[in-house]
Amino acid sequence: MLKIKELHAGYGRLKILRGISLDVSQGTIVALLGGNGTGKSTLLKTISGLLPVMDGSIEFDEKDITNSKPHHIVRSGLVQVTQSKEAYPAMTVEENLMLGAFTRSDKAEIKYDLEGVYSFFPVLKDRRNMLSGTLSGGEVQMLVTGRGLMAKPKMLMLDEPSAALAPKVVLEIFANIYKISQTGVTILLVEQNVRMALLLAQYAYIIRDGHIMIEGKSEELINDPAIKEFFLGGTVTDTSKGLNA
């Protein structure tokens, strides 16, 4: 569904991504993992059209979207939920959600999809008329994810959804990501929480200094002693029970 070939990108003359290639198959969850400053968010911004491609290509749903405008990319069904968890605090929860449908005109389907978002995140329905500035960090993450779903994505790119959240809330967020994937939405999950991401995704890429350092099936990376030692700090079994609960 998403094919990136030898992608180079960055900020002005500063090149951050140096020959990134990755594939995301339809209906899967693919994780992009790495620490701060490795190029994860830069890659998402480039895919979304927020940064120019210096070299290489981006193909989505069998169409070349290299250097396409952001609103055209959203209309094609490729939607990013940003790391900053930006919600408009002076607007209600429902007003924030409806912003996600700004490229759509199908009122009946928008209403239907809004109820679908509320089914994923019941707390948002309970607080639909409250200002988003009153929400907790976990609730804001639910809100921005729900707003992304209101764009009716074929594929959702999630940038650090677990950042700065309590462990219990992280489990809930990852459980919701799994539920969303079960509806047929393809997901590219960008995370620093390597342990949780590998438990959720089917395939993973590990990035460092703008390069893909290693890739493979998540279950194989989890069981790779070198990957465990370097990224995970030991066993991963302590989180699997909570994720599957």
Structural overview:
About 40% of the residues lie in helices and about 25% in strands. The protein is of the alpha/beta class. The chain has a single domain, classed as Rossmann fold. The strands form 2 sheets. Strands 6-7-8-3-9-10 form a 6-stranded mixed sheet, with helices on both faces. Strands 2-1-4-5 form a 4-stranded antiparallel sheet, covered by helices on one side. Helix 3 (about 95-100) runs parallel beside helix 6.
Number of domains: 1
* Element pattern in H and E: EEEHEEHEHHHHEHEHEEHHH
Main CATH class:
Alpha Beta
Percentage of residues in DSSP E strands: 25-35%
Query: What is the architecture at the second tier of CATH?
Result: 3-Layer(aba) Sandwich
Tell the overall outline: globular
- In spatial order, strands of the major sheet run 6-7-8-3-9-10
CATH homologous superfamily heading = P-loop containing nucleotide triphosphate hydrolases
- Termini separation comes to 30 Å
Largest sheet: 6 strands, mixed
CATH topology: Rossmann fold
Number of helices: 11
What's the count of strands? 10
Poorly predicted residue ranges: 234-242
Mean pLDDT: 90
Rg, rounded, reads: 18 Å
